[in-house]
Amino acid sequence: MSEKSPRLRAELDGIPTYKPGRPAAAGGPVAYKLSSNENPYPPLQGVLESAVAAAGNFNRYPDMACTGLVNEIAERFGVPVEHVATGTGSVGVAQSLIQSTAGPGDEVMYAWRSFEAYPIIAQISGATSVQVPLTEGDVHDLDAMAEAITERTRLIFVCNPNNPTGTAVRRAELERFLDRVPSDVLVVLDEAYREFVRDADVPDGIELYRSRPNVAVLRTFSKAYGLAGLRVGFAVAHEPVAAALRKTAVPFGVSQLAQDAAVASLRAEDELLGRVGSLVCERNRVHETLLAQGWTVPDTQANFVWLRLGERTAEFAAACEKAGVVVRPFAGEGLRVTIGETEANDLFLHTAGAFFKGL
Ligand SMILES: Cc1ncc(COP(=O)(O)O)c(C=O)c1O
After folding, report:
1. 163 lines ligand 1 (CB under 6 A)
2. Predicted local distance difference test score (pLDDT) of residue 23
3. Which parts of the sequence are annotated with region: Disordered (predicted)?
């Protein structure tokens, strides 16, 4: 009798694998990880204490409804509690958003290049990805996206600011785009890096969502709030979208450690946003220095910069690594570098200056 392997869904064939940012190599001279857009600051003492206290009960399941956290988010952002849905990182919520809207035969649209989880989670649902190229300036081409909408489009991600380019779309163009999207197509404004935005013309998605039932906003505690390892993110969305997210979320997907640390982070927001301010200063310094060195770098509103190096991407990534900084190359396209500790940024800038001279 021939043994057959379990039948798996054909949709999973050829699915791209998510490439996490590489950690710094152990044993190197100095090694900084600038490859995952993480927050370089260690946890605040009070936040750490709340997670440690929660750890004392990890024989128990967490609060499945994330009641305390949802209340805190609703109050902080001035939205109804029913409009808040939490998940295992914002990528978990993004996956629920697709599962709630799109299956085989449906289309999920997003700019490309953008957050590399989008094609993966779209394909897991069996939906078809529609990738609309960024403009020459590495910004979302919202006109082209509006034109690419078909009757099969179910969900559109607008990653603002965009990962990995850092570029952001502004209020007028985004509103014009939203006006063109049919009301039965969900637009997800992925604002994982919202707290790093300093351009006043880049709109806060939560303001846009209020009057638009087909707009949902994704936020995370992983970046500005420094809880990447605890896995908690959320969406703000109208009913019935928020209710669908609660149905499709992995039950008990947000640990009590994550819930309590997220609540403590919201309560310590002033201090955390002060750190974000320092990172924004560093970002501006890195950006300006790169421009002064002669690089072409798009304006960034996030905690990273994007260098479109084309065929020389791998070579520059290797030079950075040799110098002690691990960056995130996208082979043949470009390289994303997270803003980290001042010493790490200096090391990167030094390497970039030397490399540019050899171009
Ligand atoms: C644009 C964007 N959205 C969502 C995420 C997911 O973050 P998390 O799942 O940690 O909340 C990331 C992480 O890098 C991101 O860059």
Report:
1. yes
2. 74
3. 1-20
